[in-house]
Amino acid sequence: MQDLMDTLTGKFTAHYGRAPEIISYAPGRIEVLGNHTDYNEGYVLSAAINYGTCFALARREDRQVRLMAGDIMEEVQFLVDAPMPTEDHMWSNYVKGCLSGVSARKAPPCGFDAMFFGNIPLGSGLSSSAALETAAALCFAKLFDVEISKLDLARIGQKAEHEYAGVKCGLLDQVSSIYGKENALVLSDFRTFDIKPVNFPEDVCFLMCNTHAKHALVDGAYNERRQSCEIAARHFATVLDHPVAALRDVSWNEWLQYGPSLDERVARRAAHPIGEDERVLAGVEFLRDGDAAAFGQLMFQSHESSRKYFENSCPELDTVVDAAKAIPGVLGARLSGGGFGGSAVVLVEKRHAETAAQAIRSAYAHKHGEPCDTRLIICSEGARIIQG
Ligand code: GLA
């Protein structure tokens, strides 16, 4: 993080001719268990990671905003009171959405010069956009001198995704970036918003394997999955004799009994978050008992459910997970996040981590020509102001 901050400070000072006043940092995330459960009011185990984004700004005397993407050195300008989404420079929409969200709580006192810079591989499914939103929102709250709770910060980021980027995401990415804890997973209940750290065995770690695959229509496919889940929830509400506000309220047995009366595809979509909720709760118990092997099996089952029911995997992710199954020391693997490309997360015994990473890279290269990118993930602290 120090490296990122130093690089950003250097770039900021060179470009704007003065040093930044406020700097924040927000990490990306891995999703470990509980796929597409957040917007179904269910449970997720996730973690903030050792890759993230720094956001820096300095006040201006007028109402102008200059915003610079420090990696590609592209700049956009707009008035602080009118952060409208645009079709070019899509990256700026995440920041503008957050500016609009913070401004709804307190009017901006002034314009500013801003720049961000991060090391989360783009399109890797590790939530670079949520890290950017969270880092930006934290800086704006500081500049505007307004107190915003952690959960409301997450909601500001989510609203930016919905209204400025067109993705009807849940709150998982922002919550993980904000509530992350060093060496721990974050267990989130997306109905009660009870969010707490969960320890995991010391002799295991996570690898993230970035396939670089990005399949077309990702956002549309995500929104379609969400819609199917909502249709299914409405169906279960009419056939079950207890209240159903979301798929969180439906058990696997109820799905088995009443799923067949649904459209076949909608029923399959619903099976995934319903099964995932049960796996997260079982997984928490396994972690309490220190049983990483049993936890890893749940990760494999989760991926199978993605593949079979939710159809949000792809051949590249399947290659990683299938290869991982046969590698010594690997306990579990699954896709992480929205799906349709991006990264798979692998649970491995620490002493086998390096050899497992090599084996996955070569199995991947064998099938797809190029190796995937593997990185050791360290569960890390959540977002914070680091200067100012
Ligand atoms: C993306 C979304 C999250 C969540 C995951 C799937 O990361 O942004 O809200 O729905 O997909 O679990």
Distinctive features:
388 residues; alpha+beta; 8-stranded mixed beta sheet; 4-stranded antiparallel beta sheet; 44% helix; globular; binds alpha-D-galactopyranose
Describe the structure.
The strands form 2 sheets. Strands 1, 2, 3, 4, 5, 6, 7 and 12 form an 8-stranded mixed β-sheet that branches. A 4-stranded antiparallel β-sheet has the order 9-10-8-11. The protein has 11 helices and 12 strands. The protein has helices at residues 2-16, 91-103, 128-144, 150-165, 172-179, 218-239, 252-258, 264-288, 292-310, 315-325, 353-368, and strands at 22-33, 43-59, 64-69, 74-79, 112-118, 184-189, 195-199, 204-214, 330-335, 341-349, 373-377, 384-387. It starts with a helix and ends with a strand. With 388 residues, the chain is an alpha+beta fold. 49% of the residues are buried. Alpha-D-galactopyranose binds next to helix 5.
